[in-house]
Amino acid sequence: MPKVLISDQMDPLAAQIFRQRGIQVDEITGKTKEELIAIISDYDGLAIRSATKVTKDVLAAATNLKVVGRAGIGVDNVDIPAASAKGVVVMNTPFGNSITTAEHAIALMFALARDLPEADRSTQAGKWEKNRFMGVEVTSKTLGLIGAGNIGSIVADRALGLKMKVVAYDPFLTPERAVEMGVEKVTLDELLARADFITLHTPLTDSTRNILSAENIAKCKKGVRIINCARGGLVDEAALKAALDSGHVAGAALDVFVTEPAKESPLFGTPNFISTPHLGASTNEAQVNVAIQVAEQMSDFLLSGGVTNALNMPSLSAEEAPKLKPYMALAERLGALVGQLEGDAIKAVAIEVEGAAAELNQKPITGAVLAGLMGVYSDTVNMVNAPFLAKERGLDVREVRHDREGDYSTLIRVTVKTAAGDKSVAGTLFANAEPRLVEIFGVKVEADLAGTMVYIVNVDAPGFIGRLGSTLGEAGVNIGTFHLGRRSAGGEAVVLLSVDTSVDDALKAKIAQLPGVKAAKALAF
Question: Is-catalytic flag, 399?
Fold first, then answer.
């Protein structure tokens, strides 16, 4: 039974879902880093919000951990590269609090437009400064979206309902999607020059950090109002303070800060500045939604291999997983085969699918090939860290999909580039379930890839099989299965045989010395 730790306060429905799905769950919150390190090795899954910091040290101690699930969007508190290297899937729940966050951005826009917080404080202080708080309408104003993904698109929809014009800057926004959303796709400079209100809805990356820098704020229309409910660090806080003081920016509202909890900031106390303590996802509905989603996603992964909203692994739905499972087994064995045969000579790898395999999600197949291939270099490889390890080794990875159907109804081919040229292996599924090798380095040969095997390249000549059998028999090694293929009569032949015991270096040397043998290698699957 998988075991999950919920280490942050979360709606009780999360634990309930885990238990209903047959997963053991402990709810232990408020642990220090050292206390978490002391217990984390007991768990297959870790469900968190923002308080738990999943650092490299925590991951190093998490010897059984398979998945970290963040109930929310931001994963700044998870060391994703370290998790990837460790082979731990990191998931978030990007849709559970989308509406809530979008609504908070709209609420802050209204608050800025009508000076609501300051007007409230003034009135409750016994003043009646009606003429002091002259606001602006949002109708017919231009809203600039920096980031037009899930939350940004909801903000755009609400803004269009308020009869605003919406322009959007997002490198990933296609012209077709912009038309569908009802927004105008523009460059960042165009947005800054035209927007009356700017809202940010993008993750914090190297390319988005300080996207509203002093330089870019200076490009904004005078009197612009800026709202950030996304991530701290998207706005240069010191530059924003200066722009508010000068009047170039008429107002700003931040729900997120570079340092959180934000106990102090150069913006605090600045006129026309509104702040909230990271409330974007803070509604009852959102808290329930993200708790349900993280529990369902983690359960799917731990029980069936389904992967949803992972940040370091291709998605694989719970429905897809059973259908893809035999293909992934075949792919991993093909990767392991070519990796063991070519090893450090490999410079690039291409994964081709055709027939029925071409109709499936290819990313998990690629991940499985790389897991088998990288297993030659590391004992702790899976589909999560295999792409990371391949990148570390400088391997170029290419995917090819063929609509055609060849000799087999379904086929996976793995081709590696080496100094000696391209070499490929191919496999299919028998009865849509049993992985089977059908070609190795241009030679047709059908074989199961399992257990301990011996690969031999030899000159096709009478008496070779007898000599090979005698050599193995004299060493006390029993043959399980025997598979033979050749390019032509009397030409190069390939032998793949499974044996019941391991093949040591001494036996391998004896096989290599047999007349006609060009290469001999022990394999393990």
Answer: no
First and final C-alpha spacing in the chain: 26
Nearest to 6 by CA among 22, 36, 91, 21: 36
DSSP states of 40-75: GGG-SEEEE-SSS-B-HHHHHH-TT--EEEESSS--
Given 129, 260, 359, 434, which residue is catalytic? 260
Catalytically annotated residue among 231, 237, 332, 333: 231
The tokens for 386 are 């295999």
Which option is the CATH number for 3-94+285-304: 3.40.50.720, 3.40.50.970, 3.40.50.150, 3.90.170.10?
Answer: 3.40.50.720
**Given pLDDT bands bounded at 50, 70 and 90, which one contains residue 253?**
very high
Kindly tell me if the per-residue pLDDT of 305 is higher than 90: no
Exposure on the CB side of residue 496, measured as CA atoms within 13 A: 23
Contact 348, 417 (CB under 8 A): yes
Is 114 a residue of the active site? no
To the query of whether residue 278 is one of the catalytic residues in this protein, the response is yes
CATH code of domain 98-275? 3.40.50.720
| pLDDT of 97 over the 90 cut | no
Q: Which helix (H) or strand (E) holds 444?
A: strand 443-447
Domains 3-94+285-304 and 319-449 share a fold: no
Catalytic residue among 70, 201, 225, 278: 278
CATH number of 451-525: 3.30.70.260
Residue-wise pLDDT tens digits, 119-149: 999 999 999 999 899 999 999 999 999 999 8
Asked if the 319-449 domain carries CATH number 3.30.1330.90, the reply is: yes
